[in-house]
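User: Batch of two.

Assistant: Item 1 of 2:
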Amino acid sequence: QLQFVAENIEDEIKEYPEWYRLGVLLMKVGEFDYAEQIFKKMLNEELSGIKEENIYYQLGLIKYEQGNFTE
């Protein structure tokens, strides 16, 4: 069952750059603070090669999951 979950996660995010994939994986295991740090680093240092709005979307999901709607 764990193998199925791992494969499913891999299929969802394999097309994205490594930093983005790490951030998404951290979100899926509930490590929202670490994921937020990675996404913010991607924005500040332009590490991604991914559209900025996708990163902001992930940051928004993190705030939603944390219950921080005002940030």
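Item 2 of 2:
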Amino acid sequence: SLVYYKKGKVRWAIDKLKYVVQREPSNIEALVYLGKFLEEVGEEKKAMCCFERARELNPQSAILHRYEGE
């Protein structure tokens, strides 16, 4: 999904990350990147849900603290 993001295909990256999160609901990295990308396209409520889920899984996650609330 990061490959799509770097190519400017944010929506494709979002779709791929949604798939990953469906298959691996405890994947903190996928949740955080999904939240970050959702924020970029103006879907703040959905982004917050991703960040909240990641925080529930691991409140000390370095990647969560890096991107949450950018």
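The chain is about 75% helix and 0% strand.
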